[in-house]
Amino acid sequence: MQHIARKRFGQHFLSDGGIIDAIVDAVAPVPGQHVVEIGPGLAALTQPLAERLGALTVIELDRDLAQRLRAHPQLRVIESDVLRVDFGELASQPWPGGSTATAQRMRIVGNLPYNISTPILFHLLESVNLVQDQHFMLQKEVVDRMVAAPDTSDFSRLSVMLQWRYAMEDVLFVPPQSFEPPPRVDSAVVRMVPLDAPPLLDVALFSELVQVAFSQRRKLIRHTLGRWLEARSFGGSFDLQRRAQEIPVAEFVALVQQL
Fold this sequence. Notes:
CATH architecture of the largest domain: 3-Layer(aba) Sandwich
CATH topology of the largest domain: Rossmann fold
Structural class: alpha/beta
Number of domains: 2
CATH superfamily of the largest domain: Vaccinia Virus protein VP39
Largest sheet: 7 strands, mixed
Distance between the termini: 58 Å
Shape: elongated
Low-confidence stretches: 1-10
Mean pLDDT: 91
CATH class of the largest domain: Alpha Beta
Radius of gyration: 20 Å
Number of helices: 10
C-alpha cells in the first residue's frame, strides 16, 4: 500500500539514488557502530545504512511508517516524537548489532522535518557528550546559518549556539527534485562533529546571553546586551558598539565565562 506524505509531519521522502549513495558515503558507517536514524520514512536511507551496519535504531513518529519499519529484521524501531526521546537513556541501552551497552558514542543521521529542525538540534545539544557525529538533511537556508562565519548575513543565534560545541561542514547540496513530493526549498546535508575539548561554560546562561544579543539584529548590542549586562552588574569590558552578527563565537564564550 502506497504511503501518502503527511503535511503535518513535514514529510518529503528522499527518492534520488545518487543523493542517497552520496549521503551514505559521507556518513561512512562501519559494522557494529551505534547508529540512530531520525525520521527514516520509507527507508530510502535506512536500507543502505542497514546493509553496511548490519543493524541500526530508527526513530519514527508516523504510526503507519513505524509499523512498516518493524517488519525489517535489522531495525529497532522507536515510535516517538524525537523531541521526547531521552538520548542519554538510548545511549546506555544495548543496540542492534551490539550485545551490551558500552561507552561507544552514538552516530546520529536523518532527514529532519524542516518545520522543527531547530528544536531538534537544540534537543540533541543536551546529549552532545554521547555523540560521535551527526549527519542531517536540512533546509539549505538553515545549514547556511549553522556554518556561517561572523560578520555575514547568515550569522545568527543558531550559528553561535552550535559552533561553540561542534565543528560543522556543509557536505552536500540536495535539490527539491530529489524528494517525493518535492519541497519548495533547496536542501543540504551538514556534518556536525562535537569538539573534543569544548570551552567550559554555563549553557543556560550562554543561551540567554546569545538570545538577548540577537533579539534586535539591526541594532547595536548596547541597546540589548548592554542593558542585560548592566542588570547583572557586569564589571568587565566588552565592546558594545557592534551588532551581534559582528561578534565571533569565541568572544561570546569569553563573555559568559567572565559572568
